[in-house]
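re: ur question from earlier - yeah i can do the single chain one, its not a big deal. heres the input i used so u can compare w yours
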Amino acid sequence: MNTRMYQSEDCKEIIELFYNTVHSVNAKDYNEAQLDMWASKDIDICEWDKSLSEHYSVVIEEDSSIIGFGDLDINGYFDRLFVHKDYQGGGVATTIVDEIEKYAQENKVEIITTHSSITAKPFFEKQGYKVVEEQVVERKGQVLTNYVMKKNLMIK
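and the output i got, formated as tokens:
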């Protein structure tokens, strides 16, 4: 497993990983219409590249293929964390969280916030994140439940 920083050339592969992960791993907690809204086939590659390039974005590779990625914005918002369906439970997400939190601490970010899916909530709880609020988000006529979660990095 190789950990490195995001590069613009990664964007297409990352979007494919995102789409496939949402439509397979999250299918146990969300219906097909919700999954299609969350991860549609028409993701704007330029918008994603801009966002990932502006954020602190980490990529994990195995045999030259991207198997996971995550990103943190300048305000401490942990925007995305996705791991290839075939690598779930193998420590990839934990490696990404560790890298993100290390960077956050080095840059004096005291609290990290994320909006976790139902699927990812137990993982984030194991990493020390606490549910602040359950929320219902409506997009394109679909309603999704997720959780605002926070972790205070100053508490050891």
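The radius of gyration is 15 Å. not sure if urs matches, ping me
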